[in-house]
Write a structure and sequence with these properties.
This protein is mainly beta. It has four helices and 31 strands.
């Protein structure tokens, strides 16, 4: 437990952020909540505290080979370092901010105390040259990620994001494992990141023409023939949905945002919306094959945007073992469940910021409180003609139905696409982690322009 000077920078004034949005103040007792959460974070028996040093700063980075771009990064690399730990470990992250503006980090998908969630409702942004200590226990296995929750449209676009792997006691066995963080960046002819711009970008979300895998444009990847690998995919794009295809070859989906699903599901393409993740069992392939890792435009599509080229090298023996049942998931609610709340994502035309993006007809909506232990069944309704990836902070939900249809499999999620004029019904249980939380569209420009809501969980 460090001494109390960990707060020495916390009294810096809150800076307005989100272009065109309001600045939020954390609640009056945020320091007390932080201290309580910090002290309560102790590892499970046999597990450990994992210390992590992160620094945000400007640096030179080659998104495109041979072209230097001024990027913003964690520990001077894009993506930032992969944080790896086990269920029951405690992450203790010391964050030093060397950016020219304030920042804060959200641990996307992790179930943690509200005081550690990294939003403007629970902490003050960390000023330039400021320090902050995050400390929380890891409760779930899966593929997660971290990114700023201040001025996101700029900070993520410039390269501030990184993956998190949390391993459980029983994991399927693979020949190898890879993490692929997908992104796209909008570069000018000078190779620099273009500033945010234009009504259309703010309306539809920013999509760049340079597609990245682990911070590099369209790299080449080699895989051994005969082997089966686990690919952990994170979509860190500002707005782009990726319908991932591996040259049309079949693969098995084994996990989504909330960890392993019940049974492997065989696919030839899989939609990963902005901010979501997928764990895939990939292979075996034959020596000499060349495959395109791409985003196809529609289900079963043949061609699409290239992300990487995969070359299959000489064969190696496989020791992979993928069980028929990956995990047991108990359903929270039946299809006939009665909703406890309606959430409407809406838009109305306006001269600025691509129009007004709304939740329940209000920008930066204040929603009703939720009680610990009371099952939540929400209808999240998209009243617009565009997709919106819905993200709930700090909790997993189950999708009960999409436009009235039962999902193909039961899973835990924190991010789920709502199709145009569509509706998803979700069920989730607020466990005993009271405090300020939020949900929003994870197209960063929509979030910044008001398509987000705050609510409190109360005992």
């Amino acid at each position: 437990m460090p001494d109390h000077d960990r707060h020495h920078d916390h009294d810096a004034p809150t800076h307005a952020h989100h272009h065109g949005s309001v600045a939020h103040e954390p609640s009056a007792n945020w320091k007390h909540d932080y201290d309580e959460a910090y002290r309560a974070a102790e590892p499970n028996p046999g597990r450990q505290v994992v210390p992590i040093e992160l620094e945000t700063s400007e640096c030179d980075w080659e998104f495109v080979p041979g072209k230097t771009t001024r990027a913003w990064a964690f520990n001077r690399c894009v993506p930032g370092p992969t944080i790896e730990a086990h269920v029951g470990d405690v992450l203790q992250i010391r964050l030093k901010n060397r950016l020219p503006e304030p920042t804060a980090v959200h641990w996307h998908g992790l179930r943690l105390p509200a005081a550690m969630d990294g939003t403007e409702m629970v902490q003050r942004p960390i000023p330039p040259e400021g320090l902050f200590l995050y400390r929380f226990k890891l409760l779930d296995a899966g593929t997660f990620w971290y990114h700023p929750h201040v001025n996101e449209t700029v900070q993520l676009e410039r390269g501030l994001y990184g993956p998190i792997i949390v391993r459980g006691p029983e994991e399927p066995r693979f020949d190898a494992e890879r993490v692929f963080v997908l992104d796209d960046v909008k570069l000018g002819k000078d190779g620099q990141v273009k500033p945010p711009g234009g009504w259309m970008e703010q309306h539809s979300g920013r999509q760049g023409g340079t597609r990245l895998v682990n911070g590099r444009e369209e790299p080449e990847i080699t895989i051994a023939a005969g082997q089966i690998e686990r690919w952990r995919i994170v979509n860190a794009s500002s707005a782009r949905s990726v319908r991932l295809s591996i040259g049309g070859a079949p693969f098995r989906v084994i996990g989504t945002g909330g960890g392993l699903i019940e049974r492997p599901v065989t696919k030839t393409d899989w939609l990963i919306v902005a901010a979501n993740r997928a764990d895939l069992a990939v292979g075996p392939f034959e020596e000499g094959q060349v495959l395109r890792l791409q985003s196809v435009s529609k289900e079963g599509g043949k061609r699409g945007d290239l992300y990487a080229t995969i070359r299959v090298g000489p064969a190696r023996p496989s020791r992979a073992a993928l069980p028929d049942v990956l995990r047991r998931i108990e359903p929270l609610a039946a299809g006939a469940a009665v909703p406890t709340r309606e959430v409407h994502f809406g838009w109305k035309p306006g001269m600025k910021h691509g129009g007004h993006f709304l939740v329940n007809e209000e920008a930066h909506h204040r929603d009703k409180p939720v009680c610990v232990g009371e099952l939540q069944i929400w209808d999240v309704i998209n009243d617009t003609l565009m997709d919106h990836p819905f993200h709930l902070h700090g909790f997993f939900f189950q999708v009960v139905d999409i436009n009235g249809d039962t999902p193909e499999f039961l899973s835990w999620e924190d991010t789920m696409n709502i199709p145009p004029k569509g509706r998803i019904r979700i069920a989730w249980m607020p466990d005993d982690r009271p405090g300020e939380w939020m949900y929003h569209c994870h197209i960063l420009e929509h979030h910044a322009a008001g398509m987000m809501a705050h609510f409190e969980i109360v005992r």
